Amino acid sequence: xxxxxxxxxxxxxxxxxxxxxxxxxxxxxxxxxxxxxxxxxxxxxxxxxxxxxxxxxxxxxxxxxxxxxxxxxxxxxxxxxxxxxxxxxxxxxxxxxxxxxxxxxxxxxxxxxxxxxxxxxxxxxxxxxxxxxxxxxxxxxxxxxxxxxxxxxxxxxxxxxxxxxxxxxxxxxxxxxxxxxxxxxxxxxxxxxxxxxxxxxxxxxxxxxxxxxxxxxxxxxxxxxxxxxxxxxxxxxxxxxxxxxxxxxxxxxxxxxxxxxxxxxxxxxxxxxxxxxxxxxxxxxxxxxxxxxxxxxxxxxxxxxxxxxxxxxxxxxxxxxxxxxxx
Length: 327
Ligand SMILES: [Zn+2]
What we know:
Blueprint: E1 2-11, H1 15-25, E2 32-41, E3 47-54, H2 65-71, H3 75-79, H4 84-95, E4 99-103, H5 108-118, E5 129-131, H6 132-139, H7 149-155, H8 167-178, H9 183-195, E6 197-203, H10 216-219, H11 223-226, E7 238-239, E8 244-246, E9 250-257, E10 261-271, E11 277-284, H12 288-309
Parallel strand pairs: 1-4, 4-5
Antiparallel strand pairs: 1-2, 2-3, 6-11, 7-9, 8-9, 9-10, 10-11
The structure holds zinc ion (ZN).
């Protein structure tokens, strides 16, 4: 087994072009991959190979000024890149089928998958991947927020002796941070977390061809959110505590199955490219931390509503809540 530390550079286009292309493809495509960089590590995290390829974009063909400034990749280099399908064949040979991918941050793999979908490609060798950011946070100060790669390098005293924003150099920097972390343990923790997901579904995903919901309210009116069933015995779950509507169109409620115990329903509404809405629903085993946060927020919400009710003496009844926004 190899760890493949991967980093991507992607091209962007101006807003109208991006919206039009995404609508036409019915696929999220916020950027188009123009460079893949990767470093291969063995199980002892020793570097044993490196990879870099320039990909010729198919939809966003003109190099964006900002991307050119950042990466140093110019139009001529892009034009001489290889098509994504060809690049992926060669990348696959480098990775082999027994690869575990490591990234810095959560963006690269979803971006690659969107690009593969736009090109009607699919590869199972990419299935196992992990974000190193939470591993770094867990092993250092336990912070939740995302730290930059530069921050992690500085923390470990790793020299920046190569230009950044080249996919291979960034992969190399990430690999050197990986060598300072307990990657096997980080993977175990990440697996345990997703192992807590008893049920997961995305409903109304117009970006992958389903019919989206016309409003966020309709998206969360589905039975998976309002009346979920136990993933094990399929009996209706009993709602134990009320629905919490958190910031950013996120919803949470505590349910329980008589036989299979407590489960937290988490739903998040997002806007599809065609302006409809989708909802991701997860049922998971609630850990203490999650339960505490949920109950605190519920209590705050109650307090907030109580505080608002009092001074509301002469408001016109017409005023409605501010419209919901997403992302
Ligand atoms: Zn059950």
